[in-house]
Amino acid sequence: xxxSVVRDVVAMGKFLGSLDGIGVLGVAPARAKAKAPVRLxxxxxPAGVEVRARSADAARSPAASxxxxxxxxxxxxxxxxxxxxxxxxxxxxxxxxxxxxxxxxGRNKIVFGQGNPVADLMFVGEAPGADEDAQGLAFVGRxxxxxxxxxxxxxxxxxxxxFIANVIKCRPPGNRPPENDEITTCQPFLEAQIKxxxxxxxxxxxxxxxxxxxxxxxxIARFRGRFASWDDIPVMPTYHPAYLLRTPSAKKTxxxxxxxxxxxxxxxxx
Length: 270
Ligand code: URA
What we know:
Blueprint: H1 3-19, E1 39-45, E2 48-54, H2 56-60, H3 78-95, E3 114-115, E4 121-125, H4 130-135, H5 142-154, E5 163-166, H6 180-197, E6 201-205, H7 206-214, H8 220-223, E7 228-230, E8 233-238, H9 241-246, H10 251-265
Parallel strand pairs: 4-5, 4-6, 6-8
Antiparallel strand pairs: 1-2, 3-5, 7-8
Helix pairs in contact: 1-5, 3-6
The chain binds uracil.
């Protein structure tokens, strides 16, 4: 077996092992560190967008240390970050206390999405669930924990360095899939978020996000694993973390898809 195959098997084992709760923690690869960027995180609550800026010094302080030694995101200028942050704030303001569709009746909090406003990598899920609806943050329940593991233990990127949003911003009753008119009503906000962040790659999680972003009516199993394009940004459709919780055997497939994303980002797994 040549070295690259061995490295690939080891990386996949760490990803699958950690996701299975075996507790294998990744060791950061010896990779040249980019200059630490000013990190900005945007999260939404009904009162508006909370913007937190972290200086490079603050990022180095022990209290701010990430659980894993993960590589820093490539630098985009502070001016880019400030502009993206402003755009995101304007989009959140435009959403306001939205009553554009019936989902406003049952929701607790609008889930705008959160993360690095100049993320290279963006994840798009389906819709907030109960935990997200309660907290106003995307992917914070069990599926969110698995997504964190996929990003941090698998792809070796800090979760705070990616941007995470959903196709729709309000929880559908009983977690039913979003209906077409709800998706259409919310669509301009996701589109505007993508334009603001300008990620280099998008991962569409699950059938709803996959079909929406890859513009297909096919079952997800048919089109996952192949790049589609959204406004010239490569989009990788893959299975939703909630599906992986029910079907752990599909983690291997998702890892294959994420490795293609890592290739585009220039951080191959092997
Ligand atoms: N599932 C999603 O698709 N999005 C979330 O934010 C949480 C669970």
